[in-house]
Each structure stands twice: as C-alpha cells, then as structure tokens.
Amino acid sequence: MLDGSGGQGAAAWPGLAPGTVVAGFTIEGLLASGSFGTVYRARREGRPFAIKLVSLAPRGDREVDALRRMRHPNVVGFHGYGLWPEEQPHSLVLALELVEGLPLDQWVQEVNPTALDLVGRVLLPLALTLADVHALGVVHRDVKEANIIVRQSDGQPVLVDFGAAGLEGAPRLTQWMPPGTPEYRSPETLRFGRQWEGEPYQMGPAEDLWALGVVTYGLLTRMLPFGDRHDPGMVRAILEKTPPAPDELNPRVPRSLSELCMRMLEKEPEDRYADARALAEALSTAWSEADRAWRVPLFPEVRREEAPAPPPPPPPAPEAPTQQQTPTPRRMIWLALGAALLGGVLIPSAQRSGSSSPPKTQQASARQELAPPEVTGEVGHVAGPQTSPPPAPVASATPTQEPKMIKSQKVRSVAATLLTGAACMGAGCASIPKEKEGPLPSSPCPPGSEEGQKQLGIEPGDNMRIEIPANDPQGLTTEISEGAVIARVITPRGKVPSDGLVYGEFIFRKNHVYGHFTRAQLQNGELVTVCMELATSRGIGIAKEPGSTSKKAIVKNIMSVAVVSSFD
Question: Domain segments of the chain: what residues?
Fold first, then answer.
C-alpha cells in the first residue's frame, strides 16, 4: 500500500536476519511491520533497544519531527535518528527504548479492572497525555487500543506509533483523507471525505478525542460502537446512528461513566468535550464522585478451570528466522517510554523538550507497535508526495564514526507528575520485585510548583487534611495500591477549597507509604502545580496498618499533607 510519501511502506525492508548490524545496532529479531515502517529488537553495547526503519521520505521526516518535540512519561521515548546504509542511504533509523507491556485491549482482558481503576490508571492519564501532546502542536491521528501499551514496570499507559502523526503548521503529505483506522474515524472526517472538493482536510485534536471515545466504548463493552470495516453499514453508522449506551450493553458500567463515554461520541464536535483538558477534568470529577458501582470488575470473573484452553501458537514461518526472537504470547515487547541512557547512537534528537472477545481489528493487530497496512495508511488514490523540510540533525554520521547521542531530559508534564508509577496489575506483573526498604531518595518539586503555590496562597510548612473514601465497615481505613491517587481536601488552606482535589502518587516501602502530590484542582476546574507530600508529626510518610501486603496497603483514610520545597 502506498504511504503518504508515495513510496512502498514496510515492503521496502526485507527481513533482516539476526546479527545484521544497522547503524551500530545488532538486530535480534523482528517486532512489527506496518504501513509506515518496520521495527526490530536490537542491542548495542549490551543494552536492548527497539529500532524503527522508515522511508527516506517526507513521512519519515514527519515522524521524527513529531517524536523529537516530546519528552513525556506516557509517550514512546525517542533517542535520535540516523541514515542507513551509510554508503547509499534509503532509510531513516529511529532509536527508541524497548519496554515490556501489553496492548490496552489485552491488558483489560487479563486484568478485568473496575471502572475506578480503568479511569484512574488508564483513561485519565491518556486524556492528560493527549492534552500535553496537542499543546506541542502534534496530533497522533491513530489513537486505538493497539497503539496504547500498558507498561509492565509501572502500569502506566504509553502512546506509541507516531507514524501517522500530524504537526501544526507542517506541509500536507496527502491531498485527501489523512492516515487513520476506519473504525476510529470521526463523523466530520468521513463527511469531509464524502464531500471532498480538492482541499486537504485539516485534522485537529478533536480527531484524537473522538478515537479515544471509541476506545473507551470498546473497553467498557468489548464491542466497537459502530461495527468494523467488514460491515457495509459502518460508515453510515458513524455518520448517523447512536450506539446503545455502554451501561445498556454492560450493566456493570456506572451510569455516569457511560454518559461520559456517550458525550465523547456525539456526532457534532461542539457537543463533545472542548479539548483533552476538559475531558480530563470530567474524568476526574466522575472518579472523585464514584460510588460502590465503580468498585466492581467490569466483566464477570471466569474461573480458570472453566475458561477454555487457549489455542496452540501457530508454527513459525520457515522463511522468517527472525520470528524465533519474537515475544511469547503473554509478554509482548513494545516500543515505549524510557529514560535516555544511550551513549553514542545515531544523530541526537533536538534539544527541545454483543461479544466477550476483543473487536476483530484489535485481535489482528494486538502484537504490533505499528498498525498493519490493512488497518492504517488510508491516504486515498490522489495522495502524492509534497515537500516537507527534513529534520535538521545536530551532527551528521560519517562512514567511520557515529556521533554520540545526547542524553534526553525527561520533562515532567501534567500527566508525568500526576499519574506516574501506577501499580502493576494482573498477569502482566508476574515478576514482582522484592519490597523496597528505607526512605525515598530526595527529589525536586515539579517545575512551576513554586509559582502555583504563590497563586494558591500556600507555602512550605502549611498543612492540609485530605481524605480517601474508606472501604472498611467502620469507615476508618482504606486499601490502596501503589501509584496514582486522587484525594479530596477536607481542611482548606489558602485558595485550595474544601472538597477540592489533589492529585499525586503513592509510593510503597516495606512498612511505610509515601505520597507525592503535584496538582491541586480549584473549584473552577483549573489544575495548579503544587509540591506536597504525606506527613505526620513523626515525619514524612505514613505507616502501613496490619494486614497490608506488598501489593496492597491498608492505611487510615484521612491523612495530612505538607507543602514542601522538595520531596525528602
């Protein structure tokens, strides 16, 4: 299938055998092959990486430009790029970090989360991530379950595969429909396609939010809201029909969450949430008002002895020796975020910081970081290459020596500081490290917290009481997991109101729970950066109550937080 550059997407790269050296990386196996490139597992100086080969064409430049803008904990990490082969290059080589995880639809199948966990651990971080991505002038344009990986190490969702991304102000690569997956296209995009008169479609952030609505509907019902491309009525359904509300198909879905999802799928953009930040605030409000219905697993549990045996894995193709290196069915290796620890790789990146089974489309692509050609890459018969300024490398590679890659700096954006370190859940966390002992190392407050605290009229040394809903019969304690937390303020301070919300994370040690809170929400919904941590008269952190485990801690549900100038 033709990509937006007019070239043959993944077909340009025959399978590279293990042991092949590409731009200093030694190939270990094939990970994924899709419309816009091929991804391999590779190793350099003893460290594992993922490298993505894309065409030397405007579309490849566009992906590099999109990735180099972002340093975000919930976005696939990018270290740099280079040209390959050195003598007569025909490909860009993108260096990304290799991390274990599950695609979102498979994670939901394995974990079967409650609505409370789904919103707090997945949907809210995703909305905040999209808000940050859009603020940088980037539109992903292919948001779907297969491109959202739940990272095994911390349970956080990571947005991957920016091969179809659009950039604010960049020249168009296609004249008709932009790349995307049919089931996730918005009504306005389809209307444009039907009425096209030669002008390119200006695809904006609303497209990502519509697609996230389709994803949300699928997670709550395990069905696509408008059917799939095999249904001749799918386009008409997207344009004209309102699907049954999620709580009508699945009575375990809380009504408020069902209504929120349906608003995401309104036919007219003005009837949906104004932007990703507004969606995040709606999710936060719904989460904070959760009742018992939110604490029930979204689908009935299936006892293992009653579950049907999984089919045997297909035999490897004889002509594809790299398949021997592919991950096992329950442990996929994916491109995801990582701290930039590369030393000497490629060209440095810029200094800027009703069915119970998954939808058919997701079954087909669940093990691919790149969407396959039949899923994405719909650019239309009139698509043609247009000029796009190539990414300006900081240094150029020579045949004899590759330049050192500058270590990237992690930018702690809203989603980073609000929802980092969520607990691993379900079978995706079979390997749990031993409980960490001792206090936490010191770390700086998030950027902007000093200004935020001045805005709120609070300063280091001020204290507030917060509350997390109790789940014991006496209403005195609650069971918590390590990771994201949203708590309600019960003793106001400065401009932080009573019943306002604070956002942060719990961090477990053997006998204590530490808490870092980095956002406070005002009555008008505004989020302000702060720096607060759990504290008692005895010091930082709170003690675990009897009955706590390494995965779950029992704590008093009313706690104190102190405004600080750094996390000690």
Answer: 103-150+176-295, 433-567
